[in-house]
């Protein structure tokens, strides 16, 4: 019984660390997305310290969504924002930035803005909800009341 409990604990530990890969262990696609997140986050939220990749929070390859956490590092902020393996992640330092890449569109907000993060992820994972109630493209009217779109063009 004790052996089974130990085995289950070990499997749980392995599963829970799956999203905590090192940058160099990630795929080329993931590193490209993370490099973009590093650039955007440092431009929008970087103060005096360089923000860099901490770990992947969530991923959905079917919906082309990647959610990553960036944290402050021991390195000073530089003009060029790229992954810097020489910088040590400061776990308790602020800011911590959550970046969601949705089909090539990057959005980064502070980690404490949980409602915004949930909304970004929800809109990415359920794109039809984003446009609910807006009507069909061909049914929109221009400001002068004329019907827009080209019904006979197809």
- What is the quaternary state of this protein? single chain
Strand order of the largest sheet: 1-2-3-4
| Low-pLDDT segments | 3-18, 132-154
Specify the structural class: alpha+beta
CATH class reads Alpha Beta
What would you say the CATH architecture is? Answer: Roll
Specify the biggest β-sheet: 4 strands, antiparallel
Order of helices and strands: HHEEEEHH
Shape descriptor = globular
For the terminal residues, how far apart are their CA atoms? 68 Å
By CATH, the topology is Nuclear Transport Factor 2, Chain: A
Please indicate the percent range of residues in DSSP E strands (runs of 2 or more): 15-25%
Helical region count? 4
Number of strands: 4
Rounded Rg: 21 Å
Whole-number tally of structural domains: 1
Q: Helical residue percent? A: 25-40%
Average predicted confidence as pLDDT: 79
How would you describe the overall organization of this protein?
By secondary structure, the chain is an alpha+beta fold. The protein has one domain (19-126): Nuclear Transport Factor 2, Chain: A (Roll). 32% of the residues lie in helices and 24% in strands. It contains four helices and four strands; from the N terminus they run ααββββαα. It has helices at residues 2-16, 28-45, 114-125, 127-130; strands spanning 49-60, 65-76, 96-102, 105-110. It has a four-stranded antiparallel beta sheet with strand order 1-2-3-4, with helices on both faces. The longest helix is centred in the first third of the chain and has 18 residues, at 28-45. It is globular, with a radius of gyration of 21 Å. The model is unreliable at 3-18 and 132-154 (pLDDT under 50).
């Amino acid at each position: 019984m004790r052996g089974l409990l130990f085995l289950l604990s070990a499997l749980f530990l392995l599963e829970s660390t799956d999203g905590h890969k090192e940058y160099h262990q990630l795929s080329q696609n993931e590193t490209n997305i993370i490099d973009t997140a590093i650039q955007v986050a440092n431009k929008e939220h970087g103060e005096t310290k360089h923000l860099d990749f901490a770990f992947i929070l969530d991923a959905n390859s079917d919906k082309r969504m990647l959610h990553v956490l960036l944290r402050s590092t021991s390195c000073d902020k530089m003009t060029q924002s790229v992954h810097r393996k020489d910088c040590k992640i400061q776990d308790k330092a602020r800011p911590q930035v959550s970046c969601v890449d949705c089909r090539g569109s990057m959005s980064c907000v502070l980690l404490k803005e949980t409602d915004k993060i949930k909304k970004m992820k929800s809109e990415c994972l359920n794109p039809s909800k984003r446009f609910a109630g807006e009507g069909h493209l061909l049914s929109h009217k221009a400001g002068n009341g004329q019907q827009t779109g080209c019904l006979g063009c197809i």
